[in-house]
Amino acid sequence: xxxxxxASNTNGSPRGCRSNGTCGxxxxxxxxxxxxxxxxxxxxxxxxxxxxxxRFKNSRKGFYTLPEGLCVAVGEPVITGEENGYDLGxxxxxxxxxxxxxKKKKILHDSNEVSKILRKASQKExxxxxxxxxxxxxxxKRARELAIGLGLEMKLSDVEFQGDGKKATFYYTAxxxxxxxxxxxxxxxxxxxxxxxxxxxxRQEASRLGGIGSCxxxxxxxxxxIDYRSVSTSAVRYQQLSLNSLKLSGQCGxxxxxxxxxxxxxxxALKTFPKSEVKLQTEKGLAVLQKIDIFKDQxxxxxxxxxxxxxxxxxxxxxxxxxxNKNKEKVPSLEEYIVEENFPVIEKPDAMFKNLxxxxxxxxxxxxxxxxxxxxxxxxxNRSQNNA
Length: 388
Known about the structure:
disordered N terminus, GMP Synthetase, Chain A, domain 3
């Protein structure tokens, strides 16, 4: 749903907005919310909801109250009140959907997380905001040099300027606690601004930087995912995946968030299957579970000591065997319950489709090789025989 003017330049940035996804239409930004109530009129006697949702750089959003008499539209830049200054952001949502979003995130109207919108942004403030955005890569590079000079084990992943240019927030990741008091003094001296250090996790860092996943699509955390739920190894075991850290970990180094998408379906389906600890008692021997296919309702068992021979059974057959084992009754063998796999029969081609001219050869388009004409030498008669 990108805007019509967002064609890519040679450097990869959008040609229309020229600010990497911060155009006024707000249709090519990440974490964009579609207002499906935008075209509907308000009922008579009811005033619109006096709060809006404002998005800042990357995925940072906030809820703000509108002053009386001020009407804003989606994608319009506004000035929000911050501590010791102001900030500039884009309106992403208005109307009744804002109240639903606040209930979803459990934010009250009178909480400290809700601030006020001062006014609409002027063109001078917008130009200043764009200049600050262009300075962020240089500031980030210089801050990394200062951190390396102090020998701090931290990674500065992103920098965000406040709309007035008086404050900059540095986002960093670190494995342990970092004493950056001297770093703040050095950066405040070099940049002449107020510095705020904010530690984020590896998933938040990946959402800010973005990238392409192993599936070939953009990272979920940088496009639409808003809550970062923890992913445990139990999700891998429920889905019967191999514990390969290279395949199961994302760009952040943690387990992929998509492992949780189908976890509930797997857990619900596995409730009808017997546990792996349950063994089947037969007269031929004890059978142990080896594999489960929840989509086909099939299980594979192997006799204890004969681990190479697997027997494919249906879920109903396994429940039948377990019920007999509870009644202290053993079945003769697993061979009586094996599922016969019916492979598709490949019919022979008719006579009219037979290869008569060699059209199915792989080398039919190759140029024929030229054979060298070998001259047959005539044997000369032996002189000794002629003289005789």
